[in-house]
Amino acid sequence: MPQLTRRQFLQVTAAVSGSLLLPSAAQAAGGDKKFPLHKKIGEGVTICPYCSCGCGLVVATDETGHIVNVEGDPENPINRGALDPKSIAVRQLSNSPLRLRNVMYRAPGATKWEEKSWDWAVSEIAKRVKKTRDESFVRTVKVGDKDVPVNRAEGFAFIGGAANNTEDCYLATKLMRSLGVVYLEHQARL
Ligand code: SF4
Prior knowledge:
By secondary structure, this protein is of the alpha+beta class. The protein contains five helices and eight strands. It folds into two domains: 6-26 and 40-95, Phosphorylase Kinase, domain 1, CATH 3.30.200; 115-189, no CATH class.
C-alpha cells in the first residue's frame, strides 16, 4: 500500500471534504450561485518572521502576488502544521497599505526622510562597509613582546533577525567572517 506523507494526507482529506462541503455551502449561500474558483493560486513554503522558533508556513498567493491564505506547514519538523495567531497575521503584514516598499534614508543629523532607489542603497552600504573596514581593521595585537595576527574589523557589527532562515544565517555568517567582523549577533538572543 502506498505511503502518504502527512502533507499529502491533509491535501487529500481537504480535497475530499471540500468536494463534500462546497455544494451544501453553495445551497446555503443561495442555490445555484457559482464560487469564483477561477483564480490561479500559487503555494510556497517559508518561515514565520515573528520569533526565533522559526515555524514553517505554507503561503498561498493569487496572480497579483497578494497573500490569500497562510497555514502551518505539516512537513516542517519545528511546528508540524501548528501555528499561533500571530503568524496567521503575516497576510496582513504583507498586504498592508502601510507597508514600506521603497528605501527611506535619513542622513546623519537630518530631520527628514528621503526616498532613495535600491541601487543607491546597495552601493552606499558597500561604500560605507569598505570605508569602516579600512579604518578599523586590526591586523595584529601585542601579546607580551609578540605581534599576534588577529585580522579583525572592529568598527562594525552584524545583527540577524527572527526572519532569517538557516541558509540566510549561513551566508551572512560567511560574509561577515570573511570581512573580519567579530561582533555577530542575533536579535532573538538579546
Ligand atoms: S508561529 Fe508563533 S511560535 Fe512560530 S515562529 Fe511564528 S510567532 Fe514564533
